[in-house]
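request received
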Amino acid sequence: MKNEQLIQQQFQARMNEDELLNCMRCGFCLPTCPTYIESGFQESHSPRGRIALMKAVVDGLIEPDEDVERSLQLCLGCRACEPVCPSGVRYGHLLEEARDIIAQHKTYSPIVRFIRHIVFKQLFPHPKRMRMLTALIGFYQRSGLQALVRKLGLLRVLPNHLAMMEKVLPNVPTWKQMNERPTHIEAETKRKKRVAFFSGCLMDTMFMDTNDATMKLLQLAGCDIVIPPTQTCCGALHGHSGEKADAKTLAKQNIEAFEALDVDYIVTNAGGCGAFLIEYDHLLKDDPIWAERAKSFVAKIKDVSVILVELGFHLEGWRLPEQIVTYQDSCHLRNVMKTANEPRLLLQSISGVEFREMKDADRCCGSAGIYNIIEPDMSMQVLDYKMAQVKQTKATTIVTANPGCLLQMKLGIEREGLTNVRAVHLVELLLEAVEATKEANEPVKQTG
Amino acid sequence: MITEQVKRQFIQIVGAENYDDSKAGRLVYSYDATPNFQSLPDAVIAPRNTKEVSEIVKICNEHRIPIVPRGSGTNLCAGTCPTEGGIVIIFKHMNRILEIDEENLTVTVQPGVITLDLIQAVEAKGLFYPPDPSSMKISTIGGNINENSGGLRGLKYGVTRDYVMALEVVLANGDIIRTGGKLAKDVAGYDLTRLFVGSEGTLGIITEATLKLIPMPETKKTMLALYEDLEAAARSVSAIIANKIIPTTLEFLDQPTLQVVESFVNIGLPTDVKAVLLIEQDGPKEVVERDMKAMARICREQHAISVQVAKTEEEANNLRTARRSALSALARLKPTTILEDATVPRSQIANMVKAINDIAKKYNVNICTFGHAGDGNLHPTCPTDVRDKDELHRVEQAFEDIFAKAIELGGTITGEHGVGVMKAPYLEWKLGKEGIAAMQAIKRALDPNNIMNPGKVFAKSTRKRVVVTR
Ligand SMILES: Cc1cc2nc3c(=O)[nH]c(=O)nc-3n(C[C@H](O)[C@H](O)[C@H](O)COP(=O)(O)OP(=O)(O)OC[C@H]3O[C@@H](n4cnc5c(N)ncnc54)[C@H](O)[C@@H]3O)c2cc1C
Ligand code: SF4
Ligand code: SF4
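response:
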């Protein structure tokens, strides 16, 4: 009871009342909300309902009880409700603040508290520890342990979705590879731009191949690349899980790492990270000095697909063996970074690729950060819908632009038993096209 | 109040998963799209079929529990705000299209079907359901019928009322009746179908509806006429109709509306002109072309500075979407958005536009106007802030003046948004005491215990009529 009062007070003190009032309750956002649809049209799991609940807590109409918390918890945070809102309600900001307040006052069980502490404080903010963890996974994968565990069926003790998750983890790099990361790379063709690369925490460990592919493409497109080693995790995970203070610390460290560099853009290749970086100005808005610094940082953030299109990468006649390709939007890339056309343009430009848009490609896949771990039921329900749409296209390659989505698509493939379908990050497919085109061209060169 | 025993009865009918009396569950059905109205119901019930609806209603009638039937809660008259508590009935389970009858050109649906889903389903078969309220992507047919909603195509094709052929209704005593039929002609008794259309949930609960369809028009063209002068735009509307042309769509947007809408849709709407008319015509190709030419000429004669025809269907669709988002986009401007629905005979539209501007000046309030000009139906909208009591009071006075003016011009206080709680105090201005008495007699006959959406349509007291001296 006492706790609820504290939360209520914090809601009154911290929630942006103008933003809450800005929702005119027209309901235009309802048809795009995955949790509204999958919950069988429950208003409490819709954006309009969630905003009303937050407002009611501020107004003192209701207490922030379990059901209110549940409603906010079940939100994917996909922000599909924002671009369709004619009133321009920034729902994501409201959600983030509300979750932060609740998390700060929540009495988690000791075990959950311990896990949150390890993840948010001890792991993600520390690149070296991220590398160590990844190396451990690498050991697990390469030492034969994985094979043994699988053979003995030891993973049966895990809930089904976690056991499958283990299967779809990428083959991670070695400790040595992770520690030999470049800090400077030169353009491979005529230099057109100088960019900084945001390498990310998970991306530069677990998904190092994706990062390498990204840099290779930038090089080919004519970018000199700087990768400042002092950068750190973007803080998205913290921000979305109610650990805003930590997110701010990370934000400041990143701004410092990049602001002195003389670059045209700061390039990201993960929609989830990019979207969080591009809102640093909002995150730091109450801190005048940092807010200013954040603004110039934010102005430079661009997804890799945007830069490739700007530099005409899609006009170079890349080729791939014939295949049907479909694209699953990364929610945050689309709804927050407003990047949706460029990835499609790039895919459509590859000859051999038959691009087929799936129905509701812009609907969340249910990955949503760590959502698929903490809300497996809703997450799998959302995923099942997604896979049904994928199947309709008969695509053999599913392309995404965010590591979380990529894992989720792999999980979907595994669940559906689609043996001839693969999921890849956009940059990996593009690099594949580059290599295939080169190979195809070589004999021509010899004879010609 | 719902006693434990009654609660058990409800649960027995619909199952525990379809009965919600949690605080959060009730809160999210305490509002609709009307600003400044909120009130908690005692419970929310989701019946699965007509029989369950009837059983619920019987219990409510016996225990005098108010019932608020609710579609998607997008109405703008506080029609689904449970001002007297009781239960909210939602139709999330009753949302199926039951039949598309291509021989009789009808579609039969449950009340929870989303308007746009219905439109798309019939269009897939080459058929056309014209009523398209701007809220169609989320509004329900049950809501449309009960508000008698109009839309962008109303000028030529009429409103929801013109398409309702038959209804299944649960009355306040639990009786299930069927009105009308798939019939082109039917004079067997009173036209109850029409009585229930626009009844705002106060006479019964619609559990099924058969709607009329028409063949898809062959072609369609869309254009935008730009004006430096509001009244010139309004005069064009009357002139087009006086020239015996009935376009599909004839919509009006003023500059402030254009500006906010453009900031949402980003399609390059003209934001430097004082007003635009969005004009559409459909039908056989030759007719469409002839009418579009004639209307462009008329607009120019009325001093349109330019007339632009949409080149692609995508462009046309963008223009329609832009128009449909007008109201919600205006909500960007200020925390509270109050809009009205005054409607006048088409010939009076220019006078009404002028009056709105004068009234805005008189009370020093900012009024943006858009609307179904061809229907004589304007939506003067006032971006304000509930926390600014002084301004809110002036807004209220301005809108009272607007109502009075509309009636003076031979119009009405609401063209399509309904009376609900919002306009109940003004209903007598339009109907007179006798008109209200006649309607109340019908209400009492069908719902003697006043359980069906009580507090709506009929006010406890009528506003004093303001006298407009102008
Ligand atoms: C942005 C915006 C734009 C709009 N544009 C238009 C427009 O262009 N034209 C227009 O006419 N309206 C418009 N409206 C108003 C509103 O959308 C319509 O009135 C719509 O028909 C309401 O549908 P709903 O499903 O939301 O019904 P609700 O708001 O849930 O209910 C409306 C009324 O119907 C009753 N009701 C609902 N279902 C049943 C049932 N099964 N049985 C008995 N009673 C029932 C309710 O009690 C209530 O009185 C707009 C609203 C918004 C927010
Ligand atoms: S969030 Fe936006 S779209 Fe959704 S109900 Fe509120 S105003 Fe309408
Ligand atoms: S963020 Fe996604 S899940 Fe959450 S309310 Fe918005 S649309 Fe629904």
